Amino acid sequence: LSNLHWWLTGATCLNSGDYDIAINWAGGMHHARRFGAAGFCYVNDIVLAILELLKKHERVLYIDIDCHHGAGVEEAFYTTDRVMTVSFHKYGNYFPGTGNYDNIGYGEGKYYAVNFPLLDGISDLSYLVAFRGIISSVMKRFQPKAIVMQCGADSMGLDRLGCFNLTTEGHGELVKFVRSYSLPLLLLGGGGYTLSNVTRCWTYETAVAANVEISNTLPFFEQYDIYGPTFTLHTPPVNTKDHNTPLYLENMAAQLLRNIHQIDIAPSVQISDMPGPSTSSDNAEANTT
């Protein structure tokens, strides 16, 4: 629970209005549920951060680009129209086995859960086309006031537990697209089981968030050897088949877009005085009750 302070600091900084982007690469524990740990995740920092953001922002958009479905976050907000969850992930015989396209939310939250099940080997181009189409539509309909983005690096090629084929640059393009909306943005880590890829990915995305250019050549340091044979920031795609055909992606996107257009444009909520920022002890106590 020692990380709770840092998890909540990002959200409280955004709520203060003094910052437009906050980053915590140690966060992104999207599998943890209310009553138990799951998938290497003990406490769902994402849910806690979104609850903090909802104290000020009428609507919060959650975007998940981890290779695994963001089941814990979706479950927490499955019945509300104040949080829209959008997850792009491997679906089928793959942990956690949830997140099919017809998981759309319930009650007031119906159509506010969007799941794009992807197949093995998805490339930068295929992913970007699908991502931009869905997120553009979500932004127009839902009109969020803040965004939380889980940037799991296990969607990159050669991940030990992943099955996608994104490069460092392709993964970063997703963050760049979300950043272009100029909304309060909380960037979080998540999965990633090939260390050299994880550090490349989040280093580059830190630069994307800060809107700075960094060299593709890695400086020499103690663990330099693990970044061979290229010793560069950007990774080439793996020579593997992309099972996501254009027809599959088009049909899936069409179904999801029909669902997205079912929601009210910018659902309204009653706004009261903003509560004070939570402390880590407050949330630790709440999480144990």
UniProtKB/TrEMBL annotation:
Q: Where is the composition biased (Polar residues)?
A: 277-289
GO biological process assignments: epigenetic regulation of gene expression
Q: Which residues bind a divalent metal cation?
A: D66, H68, D154
Q: Which UniProt keywords apply?
A: Chromatin regulator, Hydrolase, Metal-binding, Repressor
Q: Which reaction does it catalyse?
A: N(6)-acetyl-L-lysyl-[histone] + H2O = L-lysyl-[histone] + acetate
**Domain named Histone deacetylase: residues:** 11-208
The UniProt record lists the keyword Repressor: yes
Q: Where is the active site?
A: H31 (proton acceptor)
What EC number(s) is this enzyme filed under?
3.5.1.98
Q: Does the keyword Transmembrane apply?
A: no
What protein name applies here? histone deacetylase
Task: Please give the organism.
Answer: Trichinella pseudospiralis
